[in-house]
Every structure is written in C-alpha cells, then in structure tokens.
Amino acid sequence: MAVHEIIDFLKYKADTGYLAGMQRYGIDNTNAIGVRLPELRKLAKTIKKDHQLALDLWDTGLHEARLLASLIDDPAQVTEEQIDNRTKDFYSWDLCDQVCGNLFDRTPFALSKALDFSAHEAEFIKRAGFVLMAEHAVHNKKVGNELFIALMPIIEREAWDNRNFVKKAVNWALRQIGKRNEVLKVIAIQTAQNILKQDHKAAKWIASNALAELTIR
Predict the structure, then answer these.
(1) 101 near 131, Cβ under 8 Å?
(2) CA–CA gap between residue 88 and residue 96 (Å, rounded)
(3) What does residue 125 show for φ and ψ, rounded to 5 degrees?
(4) Can you state the angle between helices 164-178 and 201-214, rounded to 10 degrees?
(5) How far is it, in rounded angstroms, from Cα 133 to Cα 176?
(6) pTM of this structure
(7) Residue 101 — φ and ψ, nearest 5°?
(8) How far apart are CA 203 and CA 196, in angstroms?
(9) Per-residue 3-state assignment (H helix, E strand, C coil) for the chain
(10) Distance separating alpha carbons of residues 47 and 45, to the nearest angstrom
(11) CA angle, residues 208, 209, 215, in degrees to nearest 5
(12) Half-sphere exposure of 56 toward its Cβ, with a 13 Å CA cutoff?
C-alpha cells in the first residue's frame, strides 16, 4: 500500500467519538483522526514489515500513521539516529509507549538508550527511558538478573521527578522488573523501600504503589 492509500483507509476507519475521548485518557489528539489501536494492529498485519513505508508514514505527522509505523517497521533496520530523532517527536504517552514497546525495545540499542534517556530533561524522552526498561523486563525472557539489578540505582535516582508521565514510567519499570522472578522481586522491594525514604511526593507514590503490588501474598 502507498502512504496516501493508508491515510485514506485510516480516515475511513476514523471515529469522531473516539477522537474526542482520547483527551480523557491524557492523549494529545491534536494531530489525530480517531482510529483505535486494534484497527491499526489489524492493518499492520496486512502490510507486514516495511521499513521505508514506516519512515514515510512517520513523516506525515499523523498520530495514527506514527503508531502504525511502530508496528510495521523492521527493528533490524532501525538505527540509533532514528531512535534519537523519533523520541524528539514524542508528545503523548501513548505514542511514546507504543513506539518503545512495538519497536525500540526490539533493537540492539534498547538498553543503552534506556540509560541515556533516563536522565533527559524532556518529559516524554525521559519517560521513554523507563518504558524501555519496563518493556525489556516483559519481552526479554532470557536476559539475566544482573542487567536488571544494574537498573535499580537509576530507578531510585530518578524517583524524585513529579511529572505525571515520568513518575508513572519509573513505577512501571520498578514493578515489571520485580515481577520477573523471586530474586528480582526481593531487590525491587528493597529499592522501593529505599525510595520511600526520599523526601519527594513522587518517590512516595512510586514506592507505595510498587510495594502494594509486589508484596501481595
């Protein structure tokens, strides 16, 4: 399919009610037309992997086209430069999360970029760092505990950030790492207890929320 054909199809699938409702979930719909994610996933299965088409779709600036691009791009062809450029375009949590989970986490640069982004000043780039940590904990079953243990000091270090989309991602990373196995659960609980001692509102929320989930018997 050509880009213009895809855009025409997306406009056909657009739902004005869903478009209006996106804002209730904190999604910036300025550049959106209102296509639900399941529809995008079905379309992606039809298109299959196409790196150049993904690049072209991203360049349209359309929210749904960018989500679709994350689903059809080929991780093997994604470069560090592309990751850096894409994260600069993030303006909404769903775009950040989908691109990181569908694409960036499946590249060889996932962890190095997670470390780079974790201290970034921009809210959605910093969120991307912790989303990558969370997604890595979910998707990469064969990775050893040592990698995730090394992420705990970074999670603890950045727990002060009270920006909504950052603190939720820090919390997400902590919980997902802790849920991998019993060894990491013990370390995640200890990290949460350390965070709880910080004199920051965000830290107390991150820690309390994580402990509530990780200490369930």
Answers:
(1) yes
(2) 10
(3) -70, -40
(4) 30
(5) 8
(6) 0.94
(7) -75, -35
(8) 6
(9) CCHHHHHHHHHHHCCHHHHHHHHHHCCCCCCCCCCCHHHHHHHHHHHCCCHHHHHHHHHCCCHHHHHHHHHHCCHHHCCHHHHHHHHHCCCCHHHHHHHHHHCHHHCCCHHHHHHHHCCCCCHHHHHHHHHHHHHHHHHCCCCCHHHHHCCHHHHHHCCCCCCHHHHHHHHHHHHHHHCCCHHHHHHHHHHHHHHHCCCCHHHHHHHHHHHHHHCCC
(10) 6
(11) 80
(12) 11
**Tens place of pLDDT for every residue, the chain, 217 residues?**
899 999 999 999 999 999 999 989 999 999 999 999 999 999 999 999 999 999 999 999 999 999 999 999 999 999 999 999 999 999 999 999 999 999 999 999 999 999 999 999 999 999 999 999 999 999 988 899 999 999 999 999 999 999 999 999 999 999 999 999 999 999 999 999 999 999 999 999 999 999 999 997 6
Greatest Cα-to-Cα distance within the chain, rounded to the nearest angstrom = 55
